[in-house]
Amino acid sequence: GAEGPTLMSYFSKNQIQALKPKITFSTLRDLQCPVLQSDELQGKAEESCSAEEHFEWLGAVLNQVSLDNKSSSFLSTYCCPEPNTVVEKAFLCTITGFIIPEKIIQLLEQLCCYFGDPKLAHWLTLTVHGFADSPVSWRENEHGFHKGGENLYNFVIFRNLDYWLQMAVGAHDDCPP
Question: Which Pfam families does this UniProt record tie to the protein (predicted)?
Fold first, then answer.
């Protein structure tokens, strides 16, 4: 398939800009992806993976951790949850910088328009990370860095425009609203 070039033209055509960010594109080939059903948050045996399994898988993909469970790996023996499917090409766009909420909403809207092409993905994901050492977290409260500085949320958007919203914060932070 020619999904990589299609996506690149899609992003450039829609002129995604957010306060002069750094934007990088990459294509992940033959990527094992969990099978997801929008109405099955907990997953269903032999039919779909749970939201929690997807979130863990996404962390591995974004950190370029191998998904093949090799016993010789000193980094990770993680493998993609079952059931899964191999996607010939997955497209990853990373935007780094200070991005205002209005731009994130614009990104979400443009990603939803992407479902207009029937040959493309069944679901998309958009992850927004706060800086690990940001002084504030949710609800304008002080952000407790302590260990990892977790401060992120993730949308999983499905072709029918249902979505999951996943949030993560550090142990010393207030929960999101």
Answer: Ribonuc_P_40
